[in-house]
Amino acid sequence: MKLPHKFAGIFAATATALAVSAPAKAVDEVNVAFFLEWATPNMIAKVEKAYDDAMGVKVNWVNFEAGTQMTEAMLAGDIDISYSQGLAPFITGVNANAPIKTVGIAVGYPANPCIVRSGSGITIDNASELEGKTVAVPLATMADYSFRMQMRALDVDLADLTIVDQVPADAVVSLTDGSVDVACIFGGDAVKNALEAGEKLMSDEQMQEAGIISFDVVSVTDAFAKANPDLVRAFMEVTDEANAAFAADQSKLDLIVAESGMDKETTMNQMADFVLPSNEEQLNDYFSDGGLAAQAIAIVGGAFATDDNPALEDYSKVIDTSFLK
Asked: What domains can be seen in the chain, in order of their start residue?
């Protein structure tokens, strides 16, 4: 089964338009995309205006439901920096020639779960019974990537499934009311609510053993990075400092709780699974030759390639690590 990619035309058309537009000029405001239900230490820096102070501009934070929406907003000129955009939607965009780059890793985490509706009787041991079932998943996201990798690991053919494109909140509703048999989702509250109606198909440990891991990136538009390199560098420095500060002192956790829109227990449980590599670790472990990012980008690039938007021969051109130095 060839999964539809409803964003390809939008990406390609907008990318062409941006390619012939005038270069971006220096700005006095920066628009940053982020996720609610995604508890990262830099939310403290967001609240305390550390980004505004370091960058010397007003920083506007806009929340999104999916990384694909972040790409659309960047292409439309509404967003300059996307914080913690899933690798899958980023790659989907660059496969479609979207003029965006990754400038670093935001967070690593266990792959997003696929949750099977209670009473279905389906487990990892009889996954073949998924054939003929309906799965809700936000397409071209890291949840979609995890879904595909889990089905591959369990030898389930995507062609035997009915796949419904739904953002996590809608997928939880569908799972709860029985409209779908499986929901593959992300987000602290979304996962918690889905688990009230079902169980994980594969545990975090089982996915890790199968080589299914995830991380999100910090992405920017080419034009913004070229016109405002100091702003991008300052953004990455503040993020790095926020991560280090929280690792040393968690006294401001309540700020993250409030900004993420989740309760304290859910926030702490989510953050316990997060890996927040420093700028130095990113350069040495992720973006070095054969590093984690280089390998993952190639894998995801192939997984989300289509006939119209094939995988790139070399993804190094959409990676700029200069802002980590």
From this structure: 8-109+214-324 (3.40.190.10), 114-209 (3.40.190.10)
